[in-house]
Batch of 4 targets.
Target 1
Amino acid sequence: MNNRSEIRWAPFESIFHSKEVIDDLTQKKEIHSKPTLSEDELEVLERNILEAIHTKSYVQILFYYKGKNFVKTGRIVHILKPSLQIVFEDHTSLYFEQVLGLQFIN
C-alpha cells in the first residue's frame, strides 16, 4: 500500500531540487550581522567576566559566530591576554569580540 502523503509531495521535491533550495534559503534567512555593543556595555561585560573568573561562577555567555547567535555555558578559567581569548574549564575558548552578553547561573 502506498503512502498518500509521500506520493503527493514527490513532484514538489523533484522540481529543481526545490526542497534543498528552500532549506538553503531558510538557513540564509537566519544569518544576521553582529550587533554592536556600546562602550558602557563592553565595560560591564568585561567587569562581569573578571568577576566570574574570581568567584569561579558558572556563566551563560551569548556569543556571535558566522552570522548566528549561540549560547555557551561553563566556568571561565582565565583570559589569554595577547589574543583576548576567554578560556573555559572544558578547554574551549571564545574571543572577547564574539561575546554579546553574560549571565551568571546560580
Note: The CA atoms of residues 50 and 78 lie 9 Å apart.
Target 2
Amino acid sequence: MTVDNDARVSMKSLQERLRRFADERDWDQFHSPKNLSTALIVEAAELLEHFQWLTQDQSTNLSREKLLEVEAEIADIFIYLLRLSDKLGIDMLDAATRKIARNEEKYPAEKVKGSAKKYTEY
C-alpha cells in the first residue's frame, strides 16, 4: 500500500492494522514485549549491516537498490516499535514530544552548539 500526502495513515490506524494482521495469523501469542524488543534489535542490526563498512560520504549516497533495502529495514524497525508501543499502551508521539522537551532542557543550544559531548560533560 502506497500512502500519498492526501491519505496519510495515522499511527493509531496502523497499530490497528498490525493488530489485525497478528490476530488473523494467531501471532499475538508471540508478540510479548520481550519478543518484540528482541525482534526490534535484530532488525536494527540488519539496518546497521547496510552501513557497516561505508565511509560517511558513501552512507549518504546510496544506490537506488541499496536505498530500497534500507527502507525495508527501517519499515521493519518501525513496525516492531509500533507493535511494542501498542502492546505497552505507549503513545509514541506523546512520548517523543516529552523526550524532545527533556532533551531541550538537558542540551541547551547555547551550551552545546557544535559539540557532541554528553550533557554530563559540560
Note: The radius of gyration is 18 Å.
Target 3
Amino acid sequence: MFYVDGFVLAVPKANLEAYRALATTAGEVWMSHGALGYVECLADDVPEGKLTSFPLAVKAEADEIVVLSWILYRSRAARDEINKKVMEDPRMDMDMANVPFDGKRMIFGGFVPTVTFGVPVIADAQ
C-alpha cells in the first residue's frame, strides 16, 4: 500500500506568489526523486470552528490562508529514501527564516491509507 505525507500551514495572503514559487520548486524536487504525486491546495470552504478546525490548528490570522498539501509515495520505505534525497538536493537549500510562511505553525506527518477509492493500489516496494 502507498504512503502519504500531509501538511497543513497558514500563508500570509501577501506571500501567496512566493509560496507558489516555493511549492512549485518543492514539487519538482519531490517528483524528480520518485514521489508519485505532489498536491498543494488553498482553503476555499474551510470554516473556523469553536474547538478545532484547520484555521485554529495552524493559528491562521485574518490576513492568512490555510494550505493543505500532501505527497504520495509507493511505500514508507520509498518515502524515507526520497525525503533523504530531497533534503540533500541543492534546490531545497533555503534559509528557513526567509520562507513565505511561519514554519513553527505547520502541522505535518506521515500516514498509512486505510480506506481508498479511486486511487490505484501500488504494490509495497519493501
Note: The radius of gyration is 15 Å.
Target 4
Amino acid sequence: MKLDPVSIEEAARYMGVRGVPDEAVCGLLIRADEMVRNSLSPKYVYRETSVDITESGVKLECMNVPLTGKDIASHLSGCTKAVLLAATLSSEADKLIRQYSVRDMAFSLALDCVCSAAVEQVCEKAEEEIFSAIDAPYRTWRFSPGYGDLPLELQSDVLTALNAQRRIGLTVTENSLLIPSKSVTAVIGISDFPLRKGGSGCGVCNMKDRCAFRKSGRSCRG
C-alpha cells in the first residue's frame, strides 16, 4: 500500500499543537511526512466472519474467545457478519522514531505524530479496498480492543485469528500492546439493513478521564 501525504494539521494535533501550526512545526512535519512515505511499506490483513451475539459475549466464527463488554455488543447489534482487521506501518516506523530520538528529539516527535496520522490513513484505505471487494450493504465504524469496555487483552486473540504475525509481522506484548507500535486492530460490523447509530467518541472511551486531547478541549476523532 502506498501512503498519501498526511494532513499536517492532523499530525500537529497529535503533537499537541492548538490551532494552526507555525512555520517551524510545519517544516518538521512536512519533512517527516516525506521520510515516512518514502521509507515505509504499510500492510494489512482482514478476515470476514459471522457474528453471533450471546449472553456470554459476541462470538465471531473466526475467534476462539468471545468479544466481551456491553459496548461491542451494542456496536454489532443488527450485524450478522463482521470484518476483523489488522493494519501496521511495519517495524520500520519504530526504527525511524528510535533512530532520531538519540540525535534529534524534535524530529523524532514529528515522525511519531506523522506515523500516528499515517496508520489511520492505512485503516481508511484498507476499508476502501476491503469493502469494494465484499458485499456489505451497511457497516459500522472500526471498533478496537481497549475502546469502551472491550478488553485490550483480546489483542492476542485477534492477531491469532488473523495469523497476523506470519502475514504482516504484527505481534503483541504481555501487556497487550501491539508491536510494531504504529498498528491497529479493529472489528467492523456488516448488516443487510440500516444500523442504529450507537455511541462513539469520548463518551464510550476508557481513556476519557486521562486523555491529553480532552484536557485541551479536543478529541482524537477530530
Note: Helices lie at 8-15, 23-39, 70-75, 91-101, 105-133, 155-162, 164-168, 212-215.
